[in-house]
Structures are given as C-alpha cells and as structure tokens.
Write a structure and sequence with these properties.
The complex is a heterodimer of chains A (114) and B (111). Chain A is mainly β and 114 residues long. Chain A has strands at residues 4-7, 10-13, 19-25, 31-37, 44-50, 53-56, 64-67, 73-78, 87-94, 104-105, 109-113. Classes of the chains: A mainly beta (114), B mainly beta (111).
C-alpha cells in the first residue's frame, strides 16, 4: 500500500544534541510537510517542500531545519533540541498544494529530550 | 484567516449516528471546509471536504449550511474505531496549502 513512513517512531535525544527525524513516501506526491504536535495540542505546521522549493512558516524557530534530497524522502533536523521541543513530529504529503488536495499523514515520531 | 468553533467533546453510542457541528461565521466565499480526524497515537487522517454542496464518501457525510456559516460532519453509524479528535479546518485561497488545526472535538463512542 502507498503510504507515509516515519522512522523512528520514538526518539530520545539529549538536551542540545542534534537529532534528525526521517520521513519517506511511496505516494510520489509533490508536497511534503512537517508538523509539530505538543502534548494535548493540535498539530502546527513548521514548513513544507513543494518539489525542491522550501517554504518556512514565519514562526518556526531557526533551530528547525529540513532537507529533501529527492521526491521520496524528507528530513527534519533539530540543531540543538531544548526541553520545549519534546513533541510528536508528523510528516504529511499531498499531490498538490492547493485547497482541494488532502494531506496524508504518517504515524509520527515522538521525540523525548532528556 | 477565518476561524472555526467546535464543541470540546461529544459522546455517542455504538452504531448510532454522530453529528459533529462546526461554526465558521467569518468564512469567505473561496474557503474550503475540510475535516480531519486523529485517532489515539496516530497521525491525522483526512475525512472529507467541501465548498458549497453537501458531500458524501465512504467515511462520512458533510452537510454545509446554505449560508456556509456552519457545517456538520455526519458519521452514519459510529463504531469504537471512530473514537478520535475531529478537526474542522478552513482552507483559504491565501495560504491554501495550510492546514490550521484548531482544538477539535473529542468523540467518545460507548459500546
């Protein structure tokens, strides 16, 4: 089945130690998104790629970066994780970027910062 | 951007219909109404979307008021697997790529 895959499902990192979360998709979608969901809150968009074009949300901290080396893969890099970055990180894809397109989400990676 | 208002929680009995309301009184003519749900420990899942007309798919129905200031997601026969947080989201022409999640409605289904 075509899907959005996130690895690992659970990640523990130390305060200040860089961490990378990965996302892959078999849907061949043009757009890939990263959302952050803190405990008991709604998901919040960090940034997205439309093909190779990176689009950052205005309030996304500089500590968060992303890479998309090819259509199938997208990475979320947290350069210096703080305790406040503990959250579920959700990757999503869509064929196109407009309002009529649904987004397909992966299961998420739960990040713990110690 | 136009906002949505949903009840915090709703309860239903298994195999009964569930009607989830969403108010969006400041919706603009080009805003699409999307519904997503998030089951426990999973990523959100698309349910349905519409613009003006009522919509049906295998998961649910979406009833949109004539003035578009409100909509209702209808789950025709709730099952235990429908227990989730349901989000009503407006997708605007400006920033139309964006899903801006609100607090959503937590649906509990009783066996």
């Amino acid at each position: 089945d075509a899907m959005v895959i996130q690895n690992p499902r659970y990640q523990v990192t130390q305060f200040g130690k860089p961490v990378t979360l990965s996302c892959s998709q078999t849907l061949n979608h043009n757009v890939m998104y990263w959302y952050q969901q803190k405990s008991s809150q709604a998901p919040k968009l960090l940034f997205h790629y439309y093909d190779k074009d990176f689009n950052n949300e205005a309030d996304t901290p500089d500590n968060f970066q992303s890479r998309r080396p090819n259509t199938s893969f997208c990475f979320l890099d947290i350069r210096s994780p703080g305790l406040g970055d503990a959250a579920m990180y959700l990757c999503a894809t869509s064929l196109l970027r407009d309002r009529g397109n649904e987004q397909y989400f992966g299961p998420g990676t739960r990040l713990t910062v110690t | 951007d136009a906002k949505t208002t949903q009840p915090n929680s709703m309860e239903s009995n298994e195999e009964e219909p569930v009607h989830l309301p969403c108010n969006h009184s400041t919706i603009s003519g080009t805003d699409y109404i999307h519904w997503y749900r998030q089951l426990p420990s999973q990523g959100p899942e698309y349910v349905i979307h519409g613009l003006t007309s009522n919509v049906n798919n295998r998961m649910a129905s979406l009833a949109i008021a004539e003035d578009r200031k409100s909509s209702t997601l209808i789950l025709h026969r709730a099952t235990l697997r429908d227990a989730a947080v349901y989000y009503c989201i407006l997708r605007a022409l400006r920033n139309d790529y964006k899903l801006s999640f609100g607090a959503g409605t937590t649906v509990t289904v009783r066996a």
